[in-house]
Fold these 3 entries.
Entry 1:
Amino acid sequence: MIGKYWKDWGPPKSVLARGNHWWKLYPELHNEPADIYVTKPKYNAFWGSDLEAVLRGLAVESLIFTGIMTDVCVQTTLVDAFHRDFNPIIAVDATCTATPYKKEALLMIESCYGRALTPCVYVPCVYCN
């Protein structure tokens, strides 16, 4: 079933492979050398990564989700965050997808797993100056 969504890109492994243009971070994010980076090998950012250990080490309780592929990567990671006892929040207008299922995914997320914020509101960061 998932093959129909990847028909123009090849198998998922090629899209998620380290070093290709889909893997690189946007320079506009102003990444700093002290930032923490977690390699995400699959759609779910918790699977096969040290993301949970990093978040627990920082005493993180709530996660604000943004990103592309709302109904795939964002949703699978958000649902897993919920099951790991984090408080997941999705910033609705800071997500997008290439499939026609964003609205359904957002409704499911809000009704079952977390809160949905729209439009995005400023949330102060306790770790920022």
Entry 2:
Amino acid sequence: MGERTDTEKGAPVSPAFSSWSDFFAMGGYAFFVWLAVAMTVAPLALLALHTVLQRRAILRGVAQQRAREARMRAAQAQQEAA
């Protein structure tokens, strides 16, 4: 098993970043990289939130419609019984 190697060249594979601070610094391009990440993740998070809220609203509307129809049927049955 041993050391990981590049499959094409057989050379040892080195990590892209030597520390977490190097990772977050992104080679001096941290502002642009993390801005791009934020501009990608934020709309996806907003889309997920919107989907959840929209689903709740639709289910609430369906429940209200069913309750309304049940009240109408009950009123109609009461009216026919009278």
Entry 3:
Amino acid sequence: MKVLDDIVHRRLPRSSQTRWTFHSQGVNIVYEYRNELINVMVVSGNDETIKCAYKLRFQNKDFIFWLKIFHKIMPHVEIIFMQLQKVNTDLIKAKQDLKSFGKEVQQTRDPMGATIEQLYLEYLED
């Protein structure tokens, strides 16, 4: 972890005390610091085979494609996560929040057709 701290200067925040096992910021950190993470793999003390495998993962076109897609969606997931974790949330409020979440994801999805096409073209160029 020290190598990661030295290069990225950031840590994932701890998740809440629920059983949900997800770090929405993890996607954003990997997206924003992907090149730095590749450097971590190069200088880490791991076995050479392991370092190369991780480095290849961060350079994999499919991985990068889905990372970009999830980077666009995760802010909405984080919002609904926070809304549903509130102590004062009842069934009616949860239903309203989920409906709002659906609209937000749809609004993100509608123009994503062009984004996916653009990402696909970038994918073909690489």
